[in-house]
Amino acid sequence: MNKEKLFNEIKDLSIINSFSKHEQLVQGIINGLNHKLIAKGDMLPSVNEMMRETGFAKETIGKAYKELISRGILESKNRMGYFVATDDTEQHLKVCLLIYAFDTFQETFYQNFRDHLGDNIQVDVYFHHNNFSVFESIINSNKGQYGLYVIAPIESNAAKEVLEQLPKEKLLIVDRYVKLKGDYSYIVQEFEKASYNAFLELAPRIKEFSEFVFFFKPSSAEPNEVLISFKRFIKEFNINGVIKNSYEAGSIAPDKVYFTIHNLELWEMLKDTRVKGLKVGKDLGILSHNDDNVKEIIFDGITTFSIDFAHMGRLAAEFVLNLKPIKQVMENKLIRRNSL
């Protein structure tokens, strides 16, 4: 690193009156990278050293360094300083994407989100698996390190408090709605009305079977609103409904409708129908939540109700690109196929 030339590069920009001191420092460091005065892995001058050499205020230097971190050009290492993270000065933004897990429908969301953003935006993906400790740790360790945060939240008061520490203008909530203080953007699902409407439309078909079995695990990532709708539906339509914590391998039986939110349970049930020689859609019915390409194909199609995760991904990318506030509840649609 050539510190003297880097400081001169920053000072020389003072002749451009349209630059604020913050912009002067940001552009000066970018110019230093472009002119090979600094390179990937180099440690930048400390805030105090930069103050002495440029005469800029501590707050101005801190703001500039944070902007370069949000673009992914710099990174901050605790108690060590600021380091050059990339030589790519065309990189404009660094995004933290925190979701539940990489299930097939979330992969659809991610792929459309990533593709729609283009090449100049860095996306770092984290998974919390509905574990609050993991969720809290990821957010706390990444505060101030990103220009934007796109987060599928955990539904708890403690998780809300963690989210409220992030700048609202840099936060987009996806998938699950949570009520936070202040004004913030979200693109989310609605579960209670959507699931009830799906059950309602399927009611004549469900009544052809002797039992409607719903696998629901309390205190999990599964939306409690779906459970509320299931209970309401079986009561209003006098249907023999059963709620079980999970599917037990080998327990599949004819003359029943099975409803699961988890894909792993779905695959296990489908395997068992084949082993027992049962025909899906004839001997028994199956309903699944969250659609994907696989469910369209296997066993001549699995009936689902779902939002369009590809569209959600593109909408989230539009927010990142334009920073235009959005408050959207996406519509769940029933997709009827062979299984029910």
Automatic annotation (TrEMBL):
CDD domains: WHTH_GntR. Residues 19-87 form the HTH gntR-type domain. InterPro entries: Peripla_BP_I (IPR028082), Tscrpt_reg_HTH_GntR (IPR000524), WH-like_DNA-bd_sf (IPR036388), WH_DNA-bd_sf (IPR036390). One of its GO terms (molecular function) is DNA binding. It holds the Pfam family GntR. SUPFAM superfamilies: Periplasmic binding protein-like I, Winged helix' DNA-binding domain. Signal peptide: none annotated. The keyword S-adenosyl-L-methionine does not apply. Keywords: DNA-binding, Transcription, Transcription regulation. This is GntR family transcriptional regulator. It comes from Pedobacter roseus. The lineage of its organism: Bacteria, Pseudomonadati, Bacteroidota, Sphingobacteriia, Sphingobacteriales.
